[in-house]
Amino acid sequence: MIAYLIRRLLYALPILLGVNLLTFALFFLVNTPDDMARLHLGVKRVTPDAVEKWKAARGYDKPLFVNARADGLGKVTDTIFFDKSLSMFAFHFGVSDDDRDIANEIKTRMWPSLAIALPTFVIGLMVNVSVALILIFFRRTYVEWSGVVALVALMSVSGLFYIIGGQFLFAKVWQLAPISGYQSGLNAARFVWLPILVGIVGGVGSGARWYRTLFLEEANKDYVRTARAKGLSETAVLFRHILKNGMVPILTGAVAVFPLLFMGSLILESFFGIPGLGSYTINAINSQDFAIVRAMVFLGAVLYIVGLILTDVSYTLVDPRVRLS
Amino acid sequence: MRPVLLWTDGLIFLLVAGLIAFVVLVRRHEHLRAPWRKVAANPVAVAAAIVLLFFTAIAILDSVHFRLALPAGPSGAVHYSPEVKSVLDVLSGPLAEQQEKSYSAPFATHLFSRETVTLPDGRQLRTYPRLRYGGASLHDPERGRSGDILMRTAEGLAGGALVWLMLWLGLKPVYGKAASRRTIANTLLALCLISGFLVALATHYHVFGTDKVGQDVLYITLKSIRTGVLIGALTTLVTLPLSIGLGVSAGYFGGRVDDAVQYLYTTLNAIPGVLLIAAAVLIMQTQLESHPGWFETGTERADLRLLFLCLILGMTSWTGLARLLRGETLKVRELDYVMAARAFGVSDVRILLRHILPNIQHIVLISVVMDFSGLVLAEAVLSYIGVGVDPTMSSFGNMINGARLELAREPVVWWQLAAAFVFMFVLVLSANLFADSVQDAMDPRSRRNA
User: Fold this and answer.
1) First and final CA of chain B: distance in angstroms?
2) Residue predicted with more confidence, B290 or B159
3) In chain B, pLDDT over 90 holds for what percent of residues?
4) Could you please report the per-residue DSSP string of A188-200?
5) pLDDT at B246 over 90
6) What SS3 state is found at B190?
């Protein structure tokens, strides 16, 4: 097991390096630091002098890969690639364009993100599983048929409409929650319940529908027929056999996305004014702060790989037939 | 008049040509026709397909572009208007030109907000001014409006019914004795009645109201259809070669090729999708900014941006299908007939084309129709974040983005959102329903479950 984990972690290195190279290529080769500087200083009427100053202030004036002027190890380390890309492996994200430490920002903004993403995920998972089970229970009746139609309709609505509709109804018309904003501590509950609700409702369509197909697949297997033939009641079959086996892919799938919850939800957070990582990223995109975008890309990649490894491990935990080797 | 072929226009025509070729191919082979016959027997699928075709037709009409000639100057040289128009613009007639001053509600005759008007005798009055075009034919809007709307509705519905009758009789050779001809009739009737209603009323009223700058919302919505359909369709044009080429060769050749392809898609998957798209779009923006020579008019610029957006979406979304195809190719490769072909010394290329591809094509087809709706929805989100289509281009995302802040107004400006919601919902819902039935018909696994 431990040998397997170590091997997986070693496999992760080339992938992270690939992510790093890709972002490096996007941000420094296709789009040179000169372009960035001009973008920030205004495209028109910018002197070469100002561009150089901007680059120097942010350390973008170094050579890309090899620094011929430095000596010794400095030839490789005193470069943009080492400074801006490789240093991310040590979680040195540098500073954003408004001179704030990105790593520090991430640490403080993580909590509001989690306050929304975690409940949305957990409650959403339970709701989706329940809805899917109900549909399976009423198999081949009008309940199932209309339920599936409702789910398809729900997933055909753009996520933006759920947010806009939720804000309009609950915050403006019924005044049950503030439209946007956030406070830390226990006061947060007042601000987060509406985004959580919107997130759950917005995810039910595709989520419950997907789980239904998983359960259906399980329900058509031989052991289920055997269980029925033994004379077990439909509820016993559903909860003791179908649910247990159907949960294996659901739980492992959930584990895979679990680490990514740290990244927060881009759109929910920016609509509801939650100062989390999602809105941080959106603001960075809007103000074209490449340093933040680069840091978030790297963070996302790390979390994705952690998710992959966790999935493998969780398989062995819930399904004794699987052995890691 | 000078025809203008935008990049996306050319590609969409190419796609339509490919689609027609595919239909011809399917019609010739019985084993390919069988699953489609199953789709055609499903009334929900048929209705969804007709609605999709209707939307596509609007998108294609909006893809035939030209520039009108300006009146000749003294030198006699012909200059063309910088404004690129499409056939849809011509067909929608006065809709594009009937611009009011600002917001007005659906079917309104007066502006939404009060303005100071100077009366003929010089006095000034705070009032809701009459609209320039909405209900302009009415002398007394207070009393005549509902009667006028009813009259025109009746006219429109009657016209729609007439068109439906002609369509129904004219299309008889096409649908013949198809099992779902009642569904075809009902769907066509619904579409004809709605179109008739819109055609009859849109010329005299703003059926969906007007937006902030007084543009007719119905017109913007119609123009948005092209953007949505194009993003859904063109992106697959980018995805397919990548995912088929890489996925199949990874599965078939194995070894180093497999490792390389797997590494490539794990790396791409590791980057959060929205961020990768956002990063690429940001870079594209700076590139467009620094190369003004790439486009002549604003429309061409917006079009180039749309094209790049499709490219970027395609580059980031091929991984899912590639992984599926790799797995399936691994299975098909070991089958007896492939072994036999290899034993006979058939070349790899020939085995891939004759034996492997035909046996995985259902997966490609399912994923294409499944992805379409997701891409239409993604456009709205991306436009909201600011990395979607050009802000000057009509799209559902831009409509929602422009309208969402107006919900805070009192009374609420709801019609823009409502129009975007209805059209987007119908488009995505019919795409989803159609995709579902295609999957049911093509996927052997789901067939067993039915």
Assistant:
1) 56
2) B159
3) 34
4) HHHHHHHHHHHHH
5) yes
6) helix
Q: What is the mean pLDDT of residues B315-321?
A: 90
Amino acid occupying residue A206:
S
The DSSP code for A89 is G
Per CB-CB distance under 8 Å, the chain A contacts of B408 are 172
Residues A160 and A268 sit within 8 Å (Cβ to Cβ): no
The Cα–Cα gap between A316 and B289 comes to 52
- Least Cα distance to B427 among B375, B383, B390 occurs for B375
Report helix, strand or coil for B2.
strand
CA–CA separation, B378 and A153 (whole Å): 17
Distance from CA of A141 to the nearest CA of B (A): 13
Tokens matching residue B175: 């649908």
Q: Say how far apart CA B64 and CA B71 lie, in whole Å.
A: 22
Q: What is the mean pLDDT of residues A264-291?
A: 86
Position B91 scores a pLDDT of: 83
Determine, for residues B287 and A168 on separate chains, whether the beta-carbon distance falls below 8 Å.
no
Closest chain B residue by Cα to residue A283: B385
Retrieve residue B268's tokens.
């791409």
Domains of chain B, start order: 2-65+216-449 (1.10.3720.10)
Q: How far is CA B270 from the centre of its chain?
A: 29
Three-state secondary structure string covering B241-282: HHHHHHHHHHHHHCHHHHHHHHHHHHHHHHCCHHHHHHHHHH
Candidate from B286, B377, B429 with C-beta closest to A35:
B286
The answer, yes or no, to whether residue A92 has pLDDT greater than 80, is: no
Q: What is the ipTM of this complex?
A: 0.87
Residue type for position A70 = A
pLDDT band at residue A44 using 50, 70 and 90 as cut-offs? low
Size of interface A-B (CB pairs under 8 A): 127
Instruction: Name the nearest CA neighbour of A114 among A294, A311, A268.
Output: A268
Structure tokens at B250: 């990874």
Q: Give chain B positions within 8 Å (CB) of A300.
A: 270-272, 275
Chain B: give the shortest CA distance to residue A296, in Å: 8
Query: Is B124 in contact with B117 (CB distance < 8 Å)?
Result: yes
Question: What are the CA-CA distances from residue A103 to residues A92, A95, A100, A266, A270 (Å)?
Answer: 7, 8, 9, 19, 20
Do the chains contact at B400 and A164, CB–CB below 8 Å? yes
**How many C-beta atoms surround the C-beta of residue A92 within 10 A?**
14
Compute CA distances B351 → B244, B342, B343, B354, whole Å: 15, 8, 11, 5
Dist CA A290 CA A296 (whole Å): 10
Looking at per-residue pLDDT, the higher value among B201 and A77 belongs to: B201
Whether the predicted pLDDT of B445 surpasses 70: no
Parallel, antiparallel, or unpaired for β B124-127 and B80-86?
unpaired
Which amino acid, one-letter code, is at B13?
A: F
Residue B312: how many other CB atoms lie within 10 Å: 22
Q: What is the pLDDT of residues A262-275, one digit of tens each?
A: 888 888 898 898 99
In sequence order, what DSSP letters do the residues of A10-56 get, joined into one string? HHHHHHHHHHHHHHHIIIIIIS-HHHHHHHHH-SSS--HHHHHHHHH
Q: If you average pLDDT over every residue of chain B, what do you get?
A: 86
| Average pLDDT over every residue of B43-70 | 90
Residue of A152, A160, A217 with shortest CB distance to B433: A152
Mean pLDDT of chain A: 85
Contact status, residue B188 vs residue B54, Cβ threshold 8 Å: no
Cis amide linkage into residue B411, ω under 30° from 0:
yes
Other CB atoms within 10 Å distance of the CB of residue A273: 14
Q: Of all helices (H) and strands (E), which one includes residue B65? A: strand B65-69
Indicate which of B271, B316, B438 best probes the interface with A, i.e. most A CBs within 10 Å of its own CB: B271
